[in-house]
């Protein structure tokens, strides 16, 4: 499922809602491609720290955890930056997934 978010300048971003397969397979790299440098660095540091102490297994576990939460984090940050649902259907989807309040 994807929702469209629009800012005051009319720029529209289409964002996936739910599990992030790209984060699952590629870790912090999708955050870099989205221009979300803050979360890319956070994910990279966590993967390095947990991976170091667990011979790589911790980095894999960190990737699984972020796969479930990263899209929600990204959408919330876009909303904080001034983006809003582009249509009533998009707003309904975000309310249904408990990303925005009713």
**In the residues, how many domains can be counted?**
1
Uncertain spans: none
Number of strands: 3
Largest sheet: 3 strands, antiparallel
Based on secondary structure, the structural category is mainly alpha
Reading side by side through the largest sheet, how are the strands ordered?
2-1-3
How do the helices and strands follow one another from N- to C-terminus? Answer: EEHHHHEH
Strand content: 5-15%
What proportion of the residues is helical, as a percent range? Answer: 55-70%
Overall mean pLDDT: 93
Distance between the amino and carboxyl termini: 19 Å
Radius of gyration: 15 Å
> What is the number of helical segments per DSSP (H or I, 4+ residues)?
5
- Give the CA-based shape: elongated
Descriptive overview:
With 102 residues, this protein is mainly α. It has one domain (22-96). Helices cover 60% and strands 12% of the residues. The chain is built from five helices and three strands. The chain has helices at 21-26, 29-33, 37-53, 57-80, 88-96; strands at residues 2-6, 12-16, 84-85. Strands 2-1-3 form a three-stranded antiparallel beta sheet. α3 (37-53) packs antiparallel against α4. The model has no long low-confidence stretch (mean pLDDT 93).
């Amino acid at each position: 499922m994807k929702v469209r978010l629009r800012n005051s300048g009319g720029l529209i971003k289409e964002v996936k809602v739910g599990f992030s397969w790209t984060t699952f397979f590629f870790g912090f790299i999708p955050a870099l491609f989205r221009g979300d440098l803050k979360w890319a660095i956070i994910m990279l540091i966590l993967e390095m720290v947990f991976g170091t102490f667990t011979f790589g297994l911790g980095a894999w576990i960190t990737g699984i955890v972020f796969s479930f939460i990263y899209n929600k984090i990204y959408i919330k940050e876009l909303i904080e930056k001034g983006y809003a649902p582009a249509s009533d259907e998009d707003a309904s989807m975000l309310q249904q997934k408990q990303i925005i309040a009713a």
